# Entry
Amino acid sequence: MNYSGLRVIREAFNGQRGWKPAWRNPEPKPNYDIIVIGGGGHGLATAHYLATKYGEKCIAVVEKGWIGSGNAGRNTTIVRGDYTLPPNTRFYDHSVGLWESMERELNFNVMHSQRGVLFLHHNDAERDDHYRKTNIMRMQGTDGEILGPEKLRKMYPSMNFDGRFPITGAYLHRRGGTARHDAVVWGYARSADRRGVDILQNCKVTGFRIEQGKVLGIETTRGFIGANKVGVSVAGNTSRVMDMAGIRTPIESHILQAFVSEGLKPIIPGQVNYGAGHFYISQSDKGGLVLGGDLDQYNSCAQRGNLPVFESVIEAAVTLFPMLSRARLLRAWGGLQDMSMDGHAVIDETPIKGLYLNGGWCYGGFKATPAAGECFAHLLSTEQPHELAKPYRLDRFRTGYLLDEKGQGPNPNRQ
Amino acid sequence: MTQSNRLNGGLINRGKPLNFNFDGRAYQGYEGDTLASALMANGVRFLGRSFKYHRPRGIFTAGSEEPNALVELRSGARQEPNTRATVAELYEGLVACSQNYKGSLRYDLLALNDLFSDILSAGFYYKTFMWPAAFWEKVYEPIIRSAAGLGRLSGEDDPDEYEKGFLHCDLLVIGGGPAGLMASLTAGRAGANVILADEDCRFGGRLNVEQEDVGGKPAVEWVEQAVAELTAMDNVRLMPRSTAMGAFDHGIYGVVERVQDHLHTPVEGKPRQTLWRVYSKRAILCAGATERPIVFPDNDRPGVMLAGSMRAYANRWAATPARMVAVFTNNDDGHRTAVDLMAKGVDVTVIVDARLDAPTLTGVRLISGAHVIGTKGRHGLSSIRVRQADGREETLACGALGVSGGWNPNVHLTCHQGGRPVWNESIAAFVPGQNIPVGMSVAGAAKGLFSTEDALRSGAEEAVAALESLGIAASALKLPRAVNSAYNLQPLYHVPHGKGRAWLDLQNDVTVKDVKLAHQENYRSVEHLKRYTTLGMGTDQGKTANVNALAIMAELTGKSIPETGTTIFRPPYTPVVLGTIGGRTVGKHFHPTRETPTDKWAREHNAPFDTAGDWMRARWFPQPGETHWRQSADREACNVRKNVGICDVTTLGKIDVQGADAASFLNRVYANGFAKLAVGKVRYGIMLREDGACYDDGTAARLAEEHFVITTTTANAGAVLRNMEFARQCLWPDMDVQLISTTEAWAQYAIAGPKSRELLQRIVDSEFDISNEAFPFMACDSVTLCGGLRARLFRISFSGELAYELAVPTRYGDALWRRMLELGQDLGVAPYGLEALDIMRIEKGHPTGRELDGRATALMLGMGRMVSRKKDSIGSTLDQREGLTDPNGLRLVGLKPVNQSEVITAGSQLVNETAPVHIDSEQGHVTSACISPHLGHSIGMAFLKGGDQRMGEIIRVVDPVRGTDVKVQVISTHFFDPEGGRLRA
Amino acid sequence: MIINHPLMGPRDRQEFTYLGDACLIDRPDWQGGNAMDQFFEYVYLRDDPAGTHRELWYHEHGDRSWLVVTRNTVTHEITNVELASDVARKQGRSK
# Structure
């Protein structure tokens, strides 16, 4: 059934009786052509593209809990395409383009709001880095501009320009913004389900059946399910799932905390990133301020963090916007981030035939959702890397063709 | 004043009346009131509007679980939106306003939303607002955002201060009700170090709100005696107004103390609130339980509240929500409300008890097996509709209804580390599970032991057990006699009859219909239910709504409640002020400030500063008449190349390396060779990361056979020391080498220019020969200055001139700087700052952090030959990977504009001479650039694909953001004095 | 988190800087047969378990010792803390 304003009004007069389940609860079939492990944004987007653009017919998405229970349901909802290294610039700009058409494509309002992403700088070196970035963004054909303090003061009069690290300017990426994270999961799930994809929740993968270097299927808590091809899309748990296939990856699992305040009348119009400390803030459509910062910086699968980062994120918030001091923090949570050895993703085949990996997304997973889905679908269907995904191959760590926007090298907790 | 709903008794101080203002009207209350209790006593029932439908809202609870009575407390810069009136202590002159309406509270224009509630049902916005595409951002979203949020921030800076503190204890007792008090007494008497924290302003918990005796006296008296005893113990720290908001790893708890929130204006110099980090060996959670209602149609009118809260207002705050009340309950505890209110002279119309076998009560009408199925009264309850088991219905007048659906143990902190609570069928509630934080135990109602007698015993037992596990002997105290009131709950989550919407989440306006819709659309897991309907996502985090909602979902799915589960509990337990978590580490104190020895002199001379990490470094030293920074920087650079300049380079890392294996150790951590560096010599070195990228460069000076001093870049000083310690301790632990940072121990100055030797000869004591023959380029030595001051002298040059670096103990830095400026006046000595430093190093093609970007290898930097292949050093294996040695990879080159009047800017991109400005033509980028005063034109350093093979080629530097496109020629980075003759003068 | 330093007693996590898996102690031999492959695995591949993890912490704001901490990555419980130099020597590292 189609969603629209008219339908909402009709159903209001119909006691909401006409609304259908957004997705089914099918029983697993014994075999599928393609199984995607991971019912997050990426896995469901992959299924959507497999079923639409790539015309695949026999697909399942297998999710250990409820769909969107991983990082898709825990992130700070930022969508942007501002990257410095050309392969990243291309990939993420393409993703932003897909975000812009997502609602029409899915017939689901994901509340994608391009209200602008601002990245502050505090000295000439940072400013030059921002010129480099916005220049390559413009050469890609997307937007990017550098603002001086006067323009910034007009946009954000309550920002403190004279704190410990004076703000000397910023870059503005107008096409960047936010989206409602749960809606993205549900939108892709509904679309995939309508096209025959079986979404199997509460179905945890416990192992792979591999014979003579080829994957035959997956062992799960709901039994064995056969497949010709299996795509692993479980960022946060990549190491554990790949370990079941006997593969070690260049990924460490880390905890990233995020925070939301009580609902407030609008005060932060766009999304702001602080250069002098890893910190960013935006305001959701319900009024809560969404805040985030750095990793806790030690390997963790606990999906919760400790006080030091909690405090440093809020210290940065109050330093940047002193008027927030009297607002209240409502909730703190944690995500389980796949931190890779160069800060960027892996979308590639593995040494095992029929087994493919989409992981290592570090901080860039949510904004990559549609493009990652498209690229992974391309790979699963054609067995060739999508043009945009070629730089994200697994062997780049061995050959030295690394990405590494931050220049931190093989230190996942600094990436 | 009126206070028409004031009762007798209570724990308020009638000797201290307090005047306050709400929504522009003046009222009076008493010391001991909360804002909510005082408003209630004054007959105010309607305090706010719900989030989505803007329905009238009144006081629902008497505690921090309050979903409705949210006000903007205070005005001006101290304004606090979303403040729960139920926990705001009343003070003289308090000012508060209701929030979340357009127009007035009474006549809220947005209340029209309610008319459209069927359209605005759960999740409606996912199904619409998609067309036309542009309207989402231009029309729909701005409307949604302006209607969203509840309270408003003032936009002004916060005038209050906040503090952070650290506490250590053997036992942290969280909650000072009967369980917590017994636990603290037990542990305190045993001599353990105890901290007892309670979110309330007084200890006692529910003993402050119940009419019962403990140890033969009124509960409140027993509490007073217990608190007096605890206060007298030196080993016990009492922390009222302190909320344990999070249980973190290893027994660390975050406790927020509201130090001065109960005062009109905080005393200056003292914090408004303090964030305590409590390091506990053991903790006992005595957090009590929170009541939940029974859900029925039209259950959200002002006047409908929790039964336990209703009697709390009567008993503790001597206030009643109305003169005629009713009770709706499924358990015995609800009866106590009727009894207590009648005792205070309030009419109790009826007790509607859902249980067919409900016990009777004298003096009040009790209908068993009955449900409340509806209410009337727009801005406040006026009547309830009751349906009996046989179907008979009647309407009964009342101004308030106390609802008791059961009690939920406050298990939250037991789940902060990922544990899940378990369902206890006998009390129909979640209790702590097995997987609770290490070192924590639970006592009393938080564990599901609801009677006072059980709570007292449980607190004492847990304390004994906790102390035993620490090896502290504690004896179980004699328990005072206490009430063991019955509960006899028969679960009823929602009433199956009646017309109208039945409300679950009062703040976010989520109804039973919404849960049914979520189920219908297959958002059935509790997390999907929550996220789809927004149930439990308000400021109260669903404390009085969640269990009822999941019980309804369980019913719909045919699963049991334990199978359905709950959503995750996360810190903070109740919302925490951002300023409190920021403490003093905000504003100018967000990070420490590191000042160099010449900082004072630089400020005296109006130098502007740059931040380099936590350091402050002077950028240039303006002379009178100079209006543009290039006038100053160019003058300083020219003066260096003509006369002599001095520059403070203290911030560069300095590491002292000593030991018999010092040389071979350095040979392993630098890519180039150091094993054979002669004593008295300095060498430039590059350090690689193990993956082959060149992450730092500097110099190593051999002052003695077993003594080196190395320098690093400013930014990487810490990282270099860390990596060297790693190599020393983890890779080659038997090497005889020791390291220490001396960055802050020595003030270090560059002294550069043709007259630098002359200047030095005026300060270096004469017994040290620093002629060119005795002290050639790259020499080093310990010397003394100015008649015996010990110093270190290094003949190294970043500027490309004859130059030295001179180090003295930091405390002499300022004096030496001033002395050099004085002594060198006739030589034309002048200080130079970061900008001049940068100009000159670019002229010489020296890489800095702009080029050492963490991706570049030695080969890319044009220093490939420096990596010795004859020895093992960090990074020298992986830097030979094909991706890092690709001939078409980036290489550092110099650029000069073809048209000498054009300017190259850092951050620009490179394209081939005739290529379009497109990402696919990208050939590299400009890392550093300046307008060279010595060459008279712009120069730049850049990474260019295959650049080392493209010398002389014409390419373009493009900058779409600044709108420039400049033809340049690829040349060597050694722009100025490429042979280096000036260095060796 | 609290790390029980073998020499200094319990210290708050904030005094330390984390590196990663203690496998970084076993640096390959640069002259070994397939040194490039070995260094690649050493630098890039990780077990990253959900469970017991031996990892390296540096007491940056303390005595600058490196420690090998045995910690569970799911519960964060720390069961052992040793001086990394002791561990390195036990694993045969010397000069």
